[in-house]
Amino acid sequence: MNDNLRQMIESVRELEAKIETELHRRQEALQYSIHNGRVFFEKELKLKNAALKKSISEYIKGARWSVILTAPIIYSLIVPLVLLDVFVSIYQAICFPIYGIPKVRRSDYLVFDRMMLDYLNGIQKINCAFCSYGNGILAFGHEVAARSEQYWCPIKHAKKVRGTHSRYPVFTDFGDGEQYHEKVSNIRELFDKKNPPAE
Length: 199
Prior knowledge:
single chain, 199 residues, two-stranded antiparallel ribbon, 2 strands, 4% strand, globular
């Protein structure tokens, strides 16, 4: 990897750290804190949020019929999502130890803290839980697939790919066979971090 590309990757990581700092500052401004994985709101904000909650009947009355009629289609996705969850979990449980690939912690991707928001009614909380599960499982599967690709085929594509994972920058260049054979063993050992160092 050339120096220019390495510098750009480091700039992106620095920007991500700044974004994280800003999000933390926003968290403090919204008067909540997180202790041992639980969210705690200051009493004043808790009361203010509770006053904003719509009742379930009010929420349903305000919904368009097309939204109500398509809800079963949306929720039918729970079946493939659960199947993906089960199969990806079994796959990494069996295969990753054999190849020395560290397992992805599923709990890092499944976060259901929106259930604690007092301004959401029961239906909204179920919707949020569904979205959290769907996006969490897809992100979990994405990271399992990224680690698999890092082990089996750490080669960049010739064409531009949208949504590449954080491990992609350390892959060898498309068409550079010498680089691949020189570095594939080393790339397979860069699992210690979510964002492996740019080589």
